[in-house]
Amino acid sequence: MQSKKDKHLHRIKIIKGHVQAIQNMLEKDEYCIDIVHQSQAVQKSLKKLDALIMKDHIKHCVVEQAKKGNLKKITEEK
User: Fold this and answer.
1) Model confidence, pTM
2) What are the two backbone dihedrals, phi and then psi, of residue 76, each rounded to the nearest 5 degrees?
3) How far apart are CA 53 and CA 30, in angstroms?
4) Would the CA dihedral through 46, 47, 49, 50 be positive or negative?
5) What's the CA angle centered on 3, arms 8 and 20, to 5 degrees?
6) CATH topology of domain 4-75
7) CA 19/CA 29 separation, integer angstroms
8) Where are the domains of the chain?
9) C-alpha 18: how far from its chain's center?
10) Across 68-76, average pLDDT
11) Which tens digits make up the pLDDT trace of 6-41?
């Protein structure tokens, strides 16, 4: 079973692959729309990563702070 850290790192590696593909496409002067599609894949992957991290944050960090009575810390996080 993969840890959440491993899942997050795996997702980052996927994102890095997409970004590298964009760089290669730009260097080769590939079709603009194809580059945009690749860029959209990066953005989608980043959003998925953000969602995973926030889900873990809420399930663990926020819950722990609430148990400790640190409601101000939870509501004022930036």
Assistant:
1) 0.77
2) -105, 10
3) 34
4) positive
5) 25
6) Methane Monooxygenase Hydroxylase; Chain G, domain 1 (1.20.58)
7) 15
8) 4-75
9) 13
10) 81
11) 989 999 999 999 999 999 999 999 999 999 999 999
